[in-house]
């Protein structure tokens, strides 16, 4: 099947971001994409100062637009971090998924909040405004099962391993790494998650905006189960495409049967919820 990653240029104008996102989704569909993904924080600037202002309920304005365009194009649409979600007085970093009939198939709340301090480079604390999600998020397509994470979730290998154990063959991480962590770890983490679990890994970032308070790295990427980068964007707004070859995945797993060779008698990753 064909996967499209939309590396959107995000502005402070929510309505403009939604309109542009839908335009690019239609373009991706016209190019034959079956599964389309938007970046983290596609409808608002990224930053703790913006989350409350741009927050919506789910369902709400942004998710309604995503539902409509998924149905119009008859695709599977991963809505990045479609919105800062407001629920019960709390805010979440939330990714929604819609099927070809417009129905919502999954809602992933970012599990690991981005609280970091790299002296002289970047300090950021999502937990000042956001609450963490507490569940794994997967959805089925006619092609394969897909696992979801958001940005910082990609750093936690156990989460990807659980998805692999539950039968996911593609992991999608909408993310917004920055100019410090991006060049250091963005591709490295994707390749690691792909090789460790013998899955495809796709990451979709906002386009880089040097004038923004938080500057995203860009470079949306797809990595195959052998650890090879098979599609990669630059920093600008663009749509990248790649064909996900599940036959190749099966061949790699047959040649290197690491999933069946793990020593369950010595170690295991435990799911608690």
UniProtKB/TrEMBL annotation:
Keyword Transmembrane: no
CN hydrolase domain residues: 1-246
Entry GO MF terms: omega-amidase activity
CDD domains: nit
GO biological process, one term: glutamine metabolic process
Pfam family, one: CN_hydrolase
Gene3D superfamilies linked to this entry: Carbon-nitrogen hydrolase
Reactions this protein catalyses: 2-oxoglutaramate + H2O = 2-oxoglutarate + NH4(+); 2-oxosuccinamate + H2O = oxaloacetate + NH4(+)
EC numbers for this chain: 3.5.1.3
GO cellular component: mitochondrion
SUPFAM superfamilies: Carbon-nitrogen hydrolase
Family: Belongs to the carbon-nitrogen hydrolase superfamily. NIT1/NIT2 family.
Name of this chain's protein: omega-amidase
């Amino acid at each position: 099947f064909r996967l499209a990653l939309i590396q959107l240029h995000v502005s402070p104008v929510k309505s403009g971001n939604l309109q542009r996102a839908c335009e690019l989704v239609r373009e991706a569909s016209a190019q034959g994409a079956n599964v389309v993904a938007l970046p983290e924080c596609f409808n608002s600037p990224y930053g703790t100062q913006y989350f409350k202002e741009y927050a919506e309920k789910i369902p709400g304005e942004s998710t309604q637009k995503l539902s409509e365009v998924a149905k119009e194009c008859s695709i599977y649409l991963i809505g990045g971090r479609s919105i800062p979600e407001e629920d019960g007085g709390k805010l979440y970093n939330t990714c929604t998924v819609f099927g070809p009939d417009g129905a919502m198939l999954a809602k992933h709340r970012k599990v690991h909040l981005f609280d970091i301090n790299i002296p002289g480079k970047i300090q950021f604390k999502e937990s000042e405004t956001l609450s963490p999600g507490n569940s794994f998020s997967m959805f089925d397509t006619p092609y394969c099962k897909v696992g979801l994470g958001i940005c910082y979730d990609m750093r936690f290998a156990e989460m990807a391993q659980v998805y692999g154990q539950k039968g996911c063959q593609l992991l999608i991480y909408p993310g917004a790494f920055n100019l410090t962590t991006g060049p250091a770890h963005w591709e490295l983490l994707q390749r690691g998650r792909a090789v460790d679990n013998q899955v495809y890994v796709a990451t979709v970032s906002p386009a880089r905006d040097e004038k923004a308070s938080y500057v995203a790295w860009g470079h949306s990427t797809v990595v195959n189960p052998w650890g090879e980068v098979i599609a990669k964007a630059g920093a600008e707004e663009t749509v990248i495409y790649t064909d996900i070859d599940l036959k190749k995945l099966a061949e790699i797993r047959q040649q290197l049967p690491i999933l069946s060779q793990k020593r369950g008698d010595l170690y295991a990753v435990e799911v608690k919820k």
